[in-house]
Every structure is written in structure tokens, then in C-alpha cells.
Design goal:
globular, 18% helix, eight-stranded antiparallel sheet, alpha+beta, Multidrug-efflux Transporter 1 Regulator Bmrr, Chain A, 3 helices
């Protein structure tokens, strides 16, 4: 198991937009994707809310294993962003905060969607993306100190 799910802390998060560089497939070169953000630094710096960075995983195809991964920043407005950037809405929801110990994004996404959410009825019918948040002083390409926010159902959610 790559996810530490022993009594995960649950927090309410969301109601923000992440914009960044997207990759669709079963294989993500995280370092290359994060490096490509530099090509859009002016756009993202102008629209960014704060200095935190986010990795968002969504649109997982259970049959092929493909998913979309966006490396980016929280933005207030997407209207002036380059059309090459992808914007993802992170809805208000309850999120289990997990500390993954994985070798790849693919391994983490596969386990979350194939095992954790299937075995936990709190994950049923939850339609929010999974995301990671990185303080500006942390390297998003290392596995150390990652926190992943996995949407779960709580009694206050309406889906």
C-alpha cells in the first residue's frame, strides 16, 4: 500500500481554480511538466492567488488507466491565461488528507481510484479531483513530505 490511510484527517477544502500545464495519459514525467510551467510564468504570476503550487489528478479512465494531471497554481481569473493552459475547478468538499509514499504519480492515482475509494464508501459518488498542495519552498517532484487531498463524502455534502 502506498497510502497511509490509518485514521486520515479530514478537512474541508475547495472552491478554487488551479491553472497550469496538463498531461493526459498513464505516464507522467513530473519534473518535465513542472519545468514547463516556467514557459507560462508571466501568465500564472499575474493571475495567481498566493505562491502555493498544486498538482491535480482527475478524469481517470478505469479501463485504460489514463488520467489527466495538471501542474499549476491557484488563480483568481482564467480569462487572460494562455490557451495552452488547463484550468481545473476544485469544488468545496471534504477531503481525506493522506501522506503517500509512492514512486510515481501513476502508482498513486491507480491505488486511490482502484483500491482506496472503492473500499471506502465515503468515496462513492464523490466527483471532485484529487490534488496535492505544495508550499512555494517545497519541490513538487520529490516524494518527501507530500500531502494528497482525496475527496470523501461527509454528512454535510450534497452530491
Amino acid at each position: 500500500m502506498v497510502l497511509d490511510t490509518d485514521e486520515p484527517e479530514t478537512e474541508r477544502h475547495g472552491d478554487f481554480t488551479v491553472a497550469g500545464v496538463a498531461h493526459r495519459g498513464t505516464d507522467v514525467d513530473e519534473a518535465a511538466l513542472w519545468d514547463s510551467i516556467d514557459d507560462y510564468a508571466d501568465d500564472l504570476d499575474d493571475a495567481a492567488v498566493g505562491t502555493d503550487r498544486y498538482a491535480v489528478m482527475f478524469d481517470v479512465d478505469a479501463d485504460s488507466g489514463e488520467f489527466t494531471y495538471v501542474a499549476g497554481r491557484e488563480v483568481a481569473d482564467t480569462s487572460d491565461l494562455s490557451p495552452e493552459l488547463t484550468a481545473v475547478e476544485i469544488p468545496q468538499a471534504a477531503y481525506a488528507v493522506l501522506e503517500p509514499d509512492h514512486e510515481s504519480v501513476e502508482e498513486m492515482v491507480r491505488e486511490i481510484h482502484e483500491e482506496e475509494l472503492r473500499d471506502d464508501d465515503r468515496g462513492d459518488d464523490v466527483h471532485a479531483p484529487v490534488f496535492e498542495r505544495y508550499d512555494s519552498d517545497r519541490d513538487p517532484t520529490t516524494v518527501a513530505d507530500r500531502e494528497i487531498y482525496v475527496p470523501v463524502r461527509d454528512e454535510d455534502d450534497e452530491y
